[in-house]
Write the structure tokens for this entry.
Amino acid sequence: MKKNSKRFEELLKKIEVDKIYTSQEGVSVVKTLASAKFDETVEIALKLNVDPKYADQMVRGSVVLPAGTGKTVRVAVIAKDLKADEALKAGADVVGSDDLIEDIQKGVINFDVLIATPNLMGLVGKVGRILGPKGLMPNPKTGTVTMDVAEAVNNAKSGQVNFRVDKQGNIHAGIGKVSFTEEQLLSNLTTFVKAINRHKPASAKGRYIKNATLSLTMSPSISLDTQELIDLR
């Protein structure tokens, strides 16, 4: 069994391991756990009572966090003509069509989010095997396949978080930086969980959120009150 580092043990002393924290308490405590030399990400992890092997229980979507994510997001857009111009005006970092696809085929991926207009998804399909494993494939459910490229670029730049449940029913997401205020983090947390609740599958039975934790990039986790989260609407 791997032994915890001295730093980790010191952080454990700041939390009550067996306590279930409210969202407000969790945010307050997690800010005291900063110990790295960089601005750590505040991460939420949810265990959902769904079985993703069934298509009607796949939880997937996106949400724009009110206080942003604290990250600089590089956005690429596959579009032509007027839509390409709209993307550039909205602040996209890379805009193209066949030329951008060629770059991706060569392994040149200098973006964090890829947006595409529906009419060019056939083109994007050529690099699906490259984009898919990296989580970069545009998808209508996350708002990255759209004719409104300006809004999509703005959302990506201003704090949009995409989420997708894994095979075990877990969802992980960064909801800000430890340097954010408690109010900003609580607002982001609440907004994120509300989005998860809105995506609850009709076929999901029982308690929707089974477990929830809050942590920093390099800290132990804090257990959150799942009933409080389930009640968020």
Remarks:
- The chain has a mean pLDDT of 94.
- The beta strands are 20-21, 41-48, 60-64, 75-78, 94-96, 113-116, 160-164, 170-177, 209-216, 222-224.
